[in-house]
Design a protein that fits this description.
Layout: H1 3-25, E1 28-34, E2 38-40, E3 43-45, E4 50-55, E5 58-64, E6 68-74, E7 77-85, E8 93-100, E9 107-111, H2 112-116, H3 121-124, E10 125-127
Parallel strand pairs: 1-9
Antiparallel strand pairs: 1-6, 2-3, 4-5, 4-7, 7-8, 9-10
Length: about 150
């Protein structure tokens, strides 16, 4: 083989290696945080009065019971801090989490009360599935009236 063919093969191998590394390192995820009650071990785990989510010391969400917040993450490991105020007027209780995000999910939903309760990953982590909104085709004709009775000016 001549030198130019070997150089071309090595260049392609290096580019494929860099692409594989960037796929693992640079994979972006949208992470949703749920403050919703969840069933775990036969008990209902309720969210606190207020839940604040911090990523890189920046508050990305402030949730009341039943709310959902979101953050974006690059890479497969995700660290965040949660401060839960159990009831109005109480001091917040801090929690820190570090999890590995699945490669096969783009939108990841984390149930914060289940994580705090120590539930396994299959209870607190799920894939975000958007709900399709059904548009009615039987739209009634809307009658528009002129409030000031100006007619066709």
């Amino acid at each position: 083989m001549n030198r130019s063919l070997i150089a071309k093969i090595c260049t392609i191998a290096v580019i494929l290696g860099i692409a594989a590394c960037m796929f693992v390192i640079g994979r972006g995820h949208t992470v949703y945080f749920d403050a919703k009650s969840v069933e775990y071990n036969g008990e209902t785990v309720e969210p606190g009065y207020r839940t604040a989510i911090f990523v890189n010391d920046e508050r990305v969400a402030r949730l009341s019971a039943g709310d959902r917040g979101m953050a974006t993450c690059i890479g497969q490991s995700f660290k965040f801090r949660v401060e839960v105020t159990p009831e109005k007027g109480a001091d917040p209780v801090p929690y820190e989490f570090s999890i590995k995000l699945p490669y096969n999910m783009d939108g990841i939903v984390l149930n914060v009360p289940a994580m705090i309760a120590g539930a396994p990953q299959d209870v607190y982590l799920s894939e975000f599935v958007s709900m399709a909104v059904e548009v009615s085709t039987d739209a009634e004709e809307e009658i528009i009236t002129d409030e000031f009775s100006l007619g066709d000016i």
